[in-house]
Amino acid sequence: MKNIVVAFFLIFTLTNCTDSGVENNPYLGDIAVYHTVYLNNSTSINLQFVGGYIVEPGGYKGIVVYRGTSDLYYAFDLACPNSPLGDCSKMTVDGLNMICSCDDSKYALALGGAPQSGTRYGAKEYRVVNNGQTLLITNF
Known about the structure:
The structure is a single chain. The chain is mainly beta. It has a single domain (22-138), classed as Rieske [2Fe-2S] iron-sulphur domain (Rieske Iron-sulfur Protein). Helix content is 10%, strand content 30%. The chain has one helix spanning 2-15; strands spanning 34-38, 53-56, 63-67, 73-77, 91-93, 97-100, 106-108, 114-115, 125-130, 134-138. Strand 2 and strand 3 (63-67) form a beta hairpin. It is globular. The N and C termini lie far apart (43 Å).
């Protein structure tokens, strides 16, 4: 009986230790991000409603913070995820999408930065911790 339990545990462990399928982006590696957004600050007024966004310093080319629901916020780097860093590799925001000027690719804010134009990598996302009146944006 003990051998059966050990064998089951071993098989379970080996079958669950697979690659997550997340492919590393060769253009955007890890960069230290630790930024606080104060929601009661006048510069953050657009985050008071769902669908609102602001642009903050940090990351590679700046960070867009987007309010997805009443208590869920997203933060994405404005560096184009499918282009080497350069002059044209900063995305702009049109309200619903981030748009890369290098190749006109689009990334949906409300869909977690998912590519909307068949590109390989989605927008680089950062963790957002909502502490009530502040948002902590970090990548660790």
